[in-house]
Amino acid sequence: MRVGIIGVTGYTGNELMRLLFSHDDVELTYLTSHSFAGKPLDEIHPHYLKIMETVCRPFSVEEAVEKTDLVFSALPHGESMEKVSILREAGLKVIDLSADFRLKDAALYSEWYKRKHLAPHYLATAVYGLPELYREEIRGASLVANPGCYPTSVLLGLAPLAARGVLDWETLVVDAKSGTSGAGRVPSQTLHYPECTENFRAYRAADHQHTPEMEQELGKLAGQEVEFTFVPHLLPIIRGILSTIYVKLTVKMDEKEIRDIYEEFYRNEQFVRLLPSPSLPETRNVYASNYCDLAVKWDSRKNRLIILSAIDNLVKGAAGQAVQNMNIMLGFKESKGLNMVPLRP
Amino acid sequence: MRVGIIGVTGYTGNELMRLLFSHDDVELTYLTSHSFAGKPLDEIHPHYLKIMETVCRPFSVEEAVEKTDLVFSALPHGESMEKVSILREAGLKVIDLSADFRLKDAALYSEWYKRKHLAPHYLATAVYGLPELYREEIRGASLVANPGCYPTSVLLGLAPLAARGVLDWETLVVDAKSGTSGAGRVPSQTLHYPECTENFRAYRAADHQHTPEMEQELGKLAGQEVEFTFVPHLLPIIRGILSTIYVKLTVKMDEKEIRDIYEEFYRNEQFVRLLPSPSLPETRNVYASNYCDLAVKWDSRKNRLIILSAIDNLVKGAAGQAVQNMNIMLGFKESKGLNMVPLRP
Amino acid sequence: MRVGIIGVTGYTGNELMRLLFSHDDVELTYLTSHSFAGKPLDEIHPHYLKIMETVCRPFSVEEAVEKTDLVFSALPHGESMEKVSILREAGLKVIDLSADFRLKDAALYSEWYKRKHLAPHYLATAVYGLPELYREEIRGASLVANPGCYPTSVLLGLAPLAARGVLDWETLVVDAKSGTSGAGRVPSQTLHYPECTENFRAYRAADHQHTPEMEQELGKLAGQEVEFTFVPHLLPIIRGILSTIYVKLTVKMDEKEIRDIYEEFYRNEQFVRLLPSPSLPETRNVYASNYCDLAVKWDSRKNRLIILSAIDNLVKGAAGQAVQNMNIMLGFKESKGLNMVPLRP
Amino acid sequence: MRVGIIGVTGYTGNELMRLLFSHDDVELTYLTSHSFAGKPLDEIHPHYLKIMETVCRPFSVEEAVEKTDLVFSALPHGESMEKVSILREAGLKVIDLSADFRLKDAALYSEWYKRKHLAPHYLATAVYGLPELYREEIRGASLVANPGCYPTSVLLGLAPLAARGVLDWETLVVDAKSGTSGAGRVPSQTLHYPECTENFRAYRAADHQHTPEMEQELGKLAGQEVEFTFVPHLLPIIRGILSTIYVKLTVKMDEKEIRDIYEEFYRNEQFVRLLPSPSLPETRNVYASNYCDLAVKWDSRKNRLIILSAIDNLVKGAAGQAVQNMNIMLGFKESKGLNMVPLRP
Prior knowledge:
Four copies of one chain form a homotetramer. Chain A has helices at residues 11-21, 41-44, 61-67, 80-89, 106-113, 131-139, 149-164, 193-196, 211-222, 255-265, 315-330; strands spanning 2-6, 27-32, 70-73, 93-96, 127-128, 143-145, 167-178, 201-202, 229-234, 241-249, 272-274, 292-299, 304-311. The first copy, chain A, has two domains: 2-125, Rossmann fold (3-Layer(aba) Sandwich); 150-314, Dihydrodipicolinate Reductase, domain 2 (2-Layer Sandwich), CATH 3.30.360.10. By secondary structure, the first copy, chain A, is an alpha/beta fold.
């Protein structure tokens, strides 16, 4: 199969190339970059020297149709929806790694992303690409909205109990911490090395644009509208998200019962690992891999559940999950190209 | 005035020396090390070469009495109480940086620190050394129990509202993140560079020994018993704690009213800085300084307050606060030796 | 083919497992650990959870013979030679990642490694496993001495000119910088996170044990005895070596002629990349990959050549090169299992 | 005394403020910023909140004359010379931290800095502000050209032997490594956190603009023209330079004799520390302090001297040295405000 990537300059585009280059069943036949069109790929990403010596193309739907069977869009949100819409109209299967097709409600999109949605007619058919929840829908999808990095870690952490209807939503607090690659490749004061290393801080407290995406999906699982407090923080690391989730239950359960629910829910999921008690996740244990590591810890003094969820934001939180979605859509083995051992140290 | 430090090998002892070396009104006349007794200080801490060329002494109460007016104990918890007890019996003023005299209840100490308390008769008179709360008591104290690093950040973050009685304790969750120097100078697998850098994780979730210390002090402020969920995390940085505190209120207030309470509470406190809205604390802004930076953020969707509190764990969280206590006890200006600008970048 | 690893606890053993797990033509059938014998692999290396759920075995030559066709020894130098000797006597092919069989002269080994060589009779037949220089010998070898990390970077940087006989050896200076994983997995004061991060220093200046290995190999290429000044430094990164090599030439050449020699020498080498001028190597461009990136820069003011050479010390500097050697020994495609894109960011 | 700083936005201006804020004998009365004129200082540098609550001024020579006795220029090279010239014409004493007045030869300046010198008439009287070499000249100077960071580390490392005339200049190689703060506060791709951390590389090999400055000063010491090979590298740390210097001698000496020369040369220098053998410098041992740590190591196999020199690039390499110069110029104790213990950990 021939696949293309729209927008290879940024970190998600780059990570897609890395994963797809090692995927035996697909060929990368079409790579575009707006800012680097006409230039050799290894000029943007010098680590590709002698590995992938190709030239970046400008975007062209004709070329996409001619050269590919499926296209990944790794454009920033706001820029992606127009191109995805064009590709879909030309009949191509698309996996969109931006936020543009994740929310079902165009008004909600406008509210949180501060812009009008340009292709709202695709929102209904776009499938939210979290395979652990929507595998069957993804199989038949033409447009997959690849989940955000924070949502992936939080949804996998909460899904088993949300689906059971035992969460006391009013008590839910998510304190998430992300590495810097999640903020992208464009330099900024915040990510300037002497400002960012040896530093730590929260940002967009209770105001992050991934909030409605999580609330939409948790609401579906719970069968009710849900809202919660979400505070992201910036870690001085390249890759990794750890979400620490605090919630009370509406029914009485002990840690063993809760673990059983998680084990049952993820029994057949290769990429979700429930750690043996009392281990807690570390971002390094999923580094550069598609795994999500989970732990549940019962605070018996306060009858509060603590769920810890770790992913690599660029893999399970972006490009790896996109490849997993592609495998499902194209009928490959779901883990194809994703069996790598996490990189540690 | 002549002061001594018991236990200069570790990071808190070392940081005390750094601060006291630049303090105009005291002289460091007595430095002990169990493991390095008889050896030059700059053999343990080579950065002192040509700065403080002295030899570490073994512990001796006679020498302490002869050479000092006040002694800091920078021994680990469990080891400190015996030496502190001996020094107190000899009539010396002591500031203990370990956890040994912070809890008023010896049974609680045994439960959380897994050992019997050897000097419980000093617990009643030991003053908890958080100047913003106990300035007057510290002034007259002979034994000050210097607060833990996490407790300092959390108590300063919660005190204004705890004292007002407006916190809904049942909803309180503290998600804290600390740099590695808090774990001390002894090498371990967890702090081995290739394991620790580019990594992040929680540890001792809902089980950290600083929990009862915070509950004791918050309970005093609130006039009732309180318990809450506390989860610490290990940051790949050297210095810095950021505590993210989530709590609901028992009365209706907006962010402005809450800010006013904080401003009023800390009006005369040099070392507590309420950031102008919408700024959030960064650990680098208090690096190597005695400041505690606070922000309050109202999550209006969930009617939940988010409080962020940043300190340098070795300064306001340990040695700096100890110097502040010493200044109060010895009648110096409280900020003496602590007016440094935070180190950034 | 069935392969085994002696000593999977350390970083080289762990990296071998990572690479061999993704190698289609071999099966990992025998993994030993002295300190973790009888324990699950994922207890030492928790990132293997649900990936390789096996139990570490104690060393047994019988078991090795029964279960494997080729064995890697990832034991520390000094410990490896005895086990390798036993395995060889039992007829197994061995790739030794320690320094024990690299030096041809047992007396030189004793001088630099401060211990007697226990299997000097294998030194003559052991092949130095740098495929770019000894491919044919490796093909027929029973025992391969896998090169050291510093030597790999320096030899690949100097080989084209050393083989031409144009280096003025008296002027040669190598200033090398290595990441911390090269020092292994055992915690130490030097690698304690708060001591190691935000720090940089040289160590074993003009006294490092890799010196005679480089001199032996350069001497072979040059056809004369050579000695030079080698100073290694410790970088606060996990992976990566950059060697900066300074040397004058015995003949007049310009940068273009020198580049031509390198291009010719490495024309058919997949894993050596001569960067286009004026690019200089960065350790991140070879991260977690088997590449060695080279640049040559002519200092025309001083008529001195500057050669820069970057590798990942755990891959091309250890486990990756060992896999490359295995591929050659077992008749696989040389790049099998080593075609990964460098991990960046 | 009243002092001013032209250009407080960048890292050197910021570091000057940090040091001068703790200096008892001077008052900071005039702070300018082109980009932040009219804005509160703590908007650029939020760590100054509640510490220095002042407003940045636009540059005005009248205001400088009215409010200050001495002015530091922390402007970038190329921008500084015009302002310095204006301040000098108005009769103010100036310490210029840029490169604009370091080279005595305006043509050499043009060649390396790619611009015309706008105030060449001040080059003759500007004193090169390395107190260990030019203390007397600095005492009477009206304009001090504060040395570059690399030159400070290299000159202090070589001065004792250069002055003795025993260096074989043809053999001199300097391999220098600098932290990222030396590159300034403006974000760039190279210093973007995910590109810079876990990475290492050389830059401007044999082409760095600090080369002629070092050659000028070493030439003066040696009484002859000298040239050498200089290669800087970028370390993933905030602060610190380590220069590794390789050179042969024209006379026979052993390590003891060489050490004696260094000890004699720096006998009365507080800020230069010759480490006891066999210790080697670490950048952390001079962190946030004005010290320069030196070691000399004789490579007896190659009869080559290895000199290691460590400084904090923002302190002894910039702002600290500027304060040292100010102390000399204004008749204060030379170490005033510079007696801090290096920050470790």
